[in-house]
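Researcher: Please translate sequence to C-alpha cells.
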Amino acid sequence: LSRFGRGVLNPVLVSTIVIVAVLLVGRIPLEAYAEGTVPLTALLGPAIVALAFPIWRHGKELGRLLPALVIAAVVATIVGAAVTVLVAWLLGVPHDILLAIAPKHATSAVSAAVADALGADVSLAAVFSILTGILGAVAGPPLLRLVRVKDPVSQGFAIGLSAHAIGTARAMELGRTTGASSALGLALAALFVPVALLAASLFGWI
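Model: Translation complete:
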C-alpha cells in the first residue's frame, strides 16, 4: 500500500481532492479559504528557495554536466511550449485559455506571472501548472522506467523540467541525486519558460 501510495496516491492530489470536497460540502467561500491559507502560501517562496540546497550539495556532479543540461533545458522548454500551444490550438481552445496553458511547465508562481504578462487568467494558469505537476509526479517515474531511462540525473532532470516543484518532491523520494537534478530542472524551467513565451509573444507567434 505504501508503495502504491507514493505513486498514484500523490499527497498533493489527495489533499486537493479532500480540500475541494470540504469546501463544497461545507459551502465555504473560496475567498475565506484563501484568506485562511495566507500563512501557508507565504511559505511557498522559502520552500522553493530551499531546493537550492540539494543542487549545491551535488554541485560537482551536476556542474560537469551543466552545459549539456542547459542545452537540454532550452530545447525541452521550446518543444514543450510549442507542443502545448499547438495541441491546444488544434483542439480549438480559445486564445485566452491557450495563453494560460502555455507556461504550465513552470512553477505556479512563475506561470501565473507569465500569464499576467501575456494578459491571460492568472488563477487559471496556476491551476494548469499545479495539475501538470501532479500528473508529472504520478506518471513521470513509471513513464521513465517504461522508456528505460535509468540514470538518476536524467530521471530527475526530466521530472523537474516538466513537473516543477510537485514533481521535484516526488523525485526527492527516488534518491538524492535524482532530487538534486530535478531541482536544477525546476530552476532552469522557471528561467527559460518566461523567456521563451515572452519572446514568442513579441514575435506574434502566440
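Researcher: Any highlights?
Model: Residues 43-202 form one domain.
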